[in-house]
TrEMBL record, chain A:
It comes from Plasticicumulans acidivorans. It comes from the Bacteria. This is Cbb3-type cytochrome c oxidase subunit. C-type cytochrome. Part of the cbb3-type cytochrome c oxidase complex. Keywords: Cell inner membrane, Cell membrane, Electron transport, Heme, Hydrogen ion transport, Ion transport, Iron, Membrane, Metal-binding, Oxidoreductase, Repeat, Respiratory chain, Transmembrane, Transmembrane helix, Transport. SUPFAM superfamilies: Cytochrome c. Pfam families: Cytochrome_CBB3, FixP_N. GO terms for molecular function: electron transfer activity; heme binding; iron ion binding; oxidoreductase activity.
Automatic annotation (TrEMBL), chain B:
InterPro entries: 4Fe4S_Fe-S-bd, 4Fe4S_Fe_S_CS, Cyt_c_oxidase_cbb3_FixG, Electron_Trans/Redox, FixG_C, Helical_ferredxn, Ig-like_fold. Residues 257-285 form the 4Fe-4S ferredoxin-type domain. GO terms for cellular component: plasma membrane. The keyword Heme does not apply. GO terms for molecular function: 4 iron, 4 sulfur cluster binding; metal ion binding. It comes from Plasticicumulans acidivorans. This is Cytochrome c oxidase accessory protein FixG. Keywords: 4Fe-4S, Electron transport, Iron, Iron-sulfur, Membrane, Metal-binding, Transmembrane, Transmembrane helix, Transport. The keyword Iron-sulfur applies. The chain crosses the membrane at residues 27-45, 78-99, 148-170, 186-206, 335-353. Pfam families: Fer4_18, Fer4_5, FixG_C.
Length: 311, 468
């Protein structure tokens, strides 16, 4: 106890503020370390410089704009705007070092024809890199990140089957103008037996089921006036590019999930459902003209072409 | 609470080292000249390369390549840097165990730059007594002028140091021009500014405090010392004698007189203390502050020479030698460090010497894992990455092996031309007729150099998926 008393009474070198409460409760005055103080002053100076450079203070319904500005092109017009995160981002996206480098490549792609691009591994490498990003941003919502599509809804872009044509020009046209696939419903036209027959015939074309009497009857319906399927799918059922009608003779099924069916009956059911319901308002691809630049669409045509099986 | 304990912060006592001439001082100037010559001139050395990068030493961060004369270090070779750091650490341990703080005294940039800053200080303000006087002087015109000149020259040196460091990371002539015209990247200004500041503070103001308080090596070097380690030491037996050291005075002038009085050979002139850049008295024995700069040896030797006495009152020696025992050089520790060091150097040299001229890899594209083709075949896609490490263009052939009946489709680019030091990605597709019930088949991508990449065929295993 005596020690405590000594400590309290010991005169100390530290100054007090001069305040006293309850008689003897005093307040030490410990100045901040010098370095701390200078750091604090430095932040004050920094803040003042910042006020002049960047948007800072609210003034009424507006704010102080700062002296920095950013220049960018919008709607074909060059604009200079006071600095803000949006204008700075636009400037960087348009005239930053990476943007400039990317534009060089895009200009090369724009200037070359498809055959030249296809022959040049360097350009293809850029197409693959840039195309992947553009695809993920714009196309993957429907077609999947890898372009694999969804059976029954969105076509697979990785295989070599093309409803609307798989050449560079076809793909470019499809992206630019969009597509609207249509097949009428045969619910009222064909009865269940007839639907069975047509389905058998369609499946026999690719060897999915054995050709038999049912498929022979189906052939009649397909090629005759009752079904009239040949009008869109063609006499040989290989599909017609200009109409977006499917090739029914190959192994690829984009609407009826035939590969997932294990028995012939299930396969027939799957095809029957498509013929019965038709394809109405499910095969709709928007036009990308105006959403993507012509250069981007051209690049995407090459990207999709060599994703799996361009023609 | 005692008075001593209540002061947790000791104010730094400024050190104004006196200049000294001697063989170690000359050796250190030689090292300084060499180090500065290399550091300041290297970024300006040009080197002809087929790729057009003509700077001998260039650390190209955006291009992901380090150029060291004829060696180009690619991003994937960066583990060499780890090897280099391991070697540097081992070398430090090895040398420290053998010869003490040689690094600190002769080669450390803190020592080198402090040396130069002290030289500037001395050139402007004069020798030690003049500097001590100036430090005590009030801020009159003379002091202001001299301090301004000193700090100005320090700042210039610091700026050149910072600028030179920055030049290693970009083409030196164009970077200097861009910096002068305000067109250089922010990173260039920031790096130069930051290093200017740190150089100024560390070499001009902080000095020995960096070694004493900041440097971890200074703190753990004691663990590597033993009684055989070469240290700078005062020969206390000779210097103190039986009756201690004494200044030259009446009856203590010649060696004979002093020996009669049992006085030591140290004349207590204090020169060894005055020249010390870390402000210690070497006569108190080995201290952790000592950076082994050997200036006290030069100081003492010059006094001994003047007196005509034997040199070596302060000298490079070891604890064992001072105690009259023999100094062992081949200690297990030294041998151990030596062996590991040799192994690390050999390994790095082997790795650099046998580096491949071409890197190739093939990754399966897993989205989708496989796709059905209209003719019934299954297709898998692969992303192939090729990386040329040579400065000439070359050609690689891409083939597959171990997958009979498969068709490789690289958009007709089976023979890929690669520009000098080019990195390229190629999309490859493989088509295969399903056979049996196999879900997965293994095969190899074979990359055959056709031109420019030597003769080593690169094989990369890959898998082909036929079903989930």
């Amino acid at each position: 106890m005596s020690e405590t008393t000594t400590n309290q009474q010991k005169p100390t070198a530290v100054q007090t503020t001069g305040h006293a409460w309850d008689g003897d409760l005093q307040e030490f005055n410990n100045p901040l370390p010098r370095w701390w103080l200078w750091s604090f002053y430095a932040t004050v100076v920094f803040a003042v410089i910042y006020w002049f450079l960047y948007p800072t203070w609210p003034v009424g319904s507006s704010w102080t704009k700062g002296v920095l500005s950013a220049t960018f092109t919008e709607g074909g017009k060059q604009e200079t705007m006071r600095w803000n995160t949006r204008s700075a981002l636009l400037e960087d996206l348009q005239t930053g070092a990476d943007a400039t480098r990317q534009r060089e490549y895009f200009e090369k792609i724009a200037a070359a024809d498809f055959a030249t691009i296809q022959k040049d591994p360097q350009m293809l490498a850029f197409v693959n890199q840039a195309g992947k990003r553009i695809f993920e941003t714009n196309c993957s919502a429907c077609h999947g990140r890898g372009g694999q599509g969804v059976v029954g809804l969105f076509p697979n872009l990785v295989d070599d089957d093309w409803l609307w044509g798989g050449t560079f020009k076809d793909i470019q046209y499809t992206i630019t103008h969009g597509r609207n696939g249509y097949m009428p419903s045969f619910k009222g036209t064909l009865n269940t037996a007839q639907l069975d027959d047509v389905a058998s015939y369609v499946l026999s074309l690719s060897g999915e089921v054995q050709a038999d009497e049912a498929s022979a009857r189906g052939k009649q319906i397909f090629e005759g006036p009752v079904g009239g399927c040949y009008m869109c799918h063609g006499d040989a059922a290989k599909g017609i590019k200009s109409m977006g009608s499917a090739n029914l003779t190959d192994k690829i099924w984009t609407l009826a999930n035939v590969p997932a069916a294990t028995t012939p009956e299930a396969k027939i059911e799957a095809v029957k459902a498509v013929v019965s319901n038709g394809v109405i308002n499910v095969r709709t691809m928007p036009a990308w003209d105006g959403r993507m630049s012509a250069d981007e669409i051209k690049l995407m045509a090459v990207y999709i072409h060599q994703l799996g099986g361009g023609q | 609470m005692t008075e001593a304990e209540s002061h947790l912060y000791a104010k730094r006592i400024p050190i104004h080292p006196r200049s000294v001439k001697g063989r170690f001082r000359n050796l250190r100037y030689a090292v300084l000249a060499l180090a500065y010559g290399v550091y300041f001139l290297l970024p300006w050395v040009r080197w002809s390369r087929p790729t057009g990068v003509n700077q001998a030493v260039l650390f190209d961060i955006p291009g992901r390549r380090f150029y060291l004369f004829d060696l180009v270090v690619q991003a994937q070779d960066i583990f060499w840097l780890a090897g280099l750091l391991v070697i540097a650490a081992l070398l430090l341990f090895f040398v420290t165990g053998l010869a003490g703080r040689v690094w600190c005294g002769y080669f450390c940039f803190q020592t080198l730059w402090t040396d130069v800053f002290i030289l500037i200080e001395q050139w402007v303000q004069g020798e030690r007594p003049a500097r001590i006087r100036l430090a005590k002087q009030s801020w009159d015109a003379e002091k202001r002028r001299k301090m301004l000149a000193t700090w100005g020259l320090w700042l210039l040196t610091a700026f050149l140091t910072g600028l030179t460091f920055t030049l290693y990371w970009a083409d030196a002539p164009s970077l200097v021009w861009n910096m002068l015209t305000g067109g250089a990247p922010f990173a260039a200004y920031a790096t130069t500014g930051f290093l200017t500041l740190t150089t100024f503070v560390m070499a001009g103001l902080a000095r020995e405090q960096v070694c004493t308080y900041m440097c971890p090596y200074a703190r753990f070097q004691g663990a590597m010392f033993d009684r055989d380690t070469l240290i700078i030491s005062y020969d206390a037996a000779r210097g103190e004698g039986d009756a201690g050291r004494a200044k030259i005075g009446k009856g203590a002038k010649t060696l004979e007189e002093r020996q009669e009085k049992k006085l030591g050979d140290c004349v207590d002139c204090g020169y060894c203390v005055q020249v010390c850049p870390v402000g210690i008295d070497i006569r108190r024995g080995l201290q952790y502050q000592c950076i082994s700069c050997a200036l006290c040896i030069d100081a003492c030797d010059s006094i001994m020479d003047n007196l005509g006495w034997r040199r070596g009152l302060i000298r490079y020696t070891s604890d064992n030698a001072l105690a009259g025992k023999s100094t062992r050089l081949l200690k297990p520790k030294t041998l151990g460090y030596g062996v590991i060091l040799t192994a690390a150097v050999s390994l790095l040299a082997w790795s650099v010497g046998t580096r491949s001229l071409l890197d190739a890899s093939a990754e399966l594209v897993r989205q989708p894992l496989f796709v059905q083709l209209s003719d019934g075949r299954i297709q898998n896609s692969y992303e192939i990455k090729l990386n040329s490490k040579v400065a000439q263009p070359g050609k690689v052939r891409i083939e597959i092996a171990g997958l009979p009946g498969a068709e490789l489709d690289v958009d007709g680019h089976n023979l890929i031309p690669l520009a000098a030091e080019q990195r390229l990605r190629v999309r490859a597709k493989i088509k295969l007729q399903p056979d049996g019930n196999l879900a997965r088949r293994e095969f190899e991508f074979v990359f055959t150099p056709v031109e420019g990449f030597g003769t080593d065929v690169i094989r990369r295993p890959a898998a082909f998926y036929l079903k989930e």
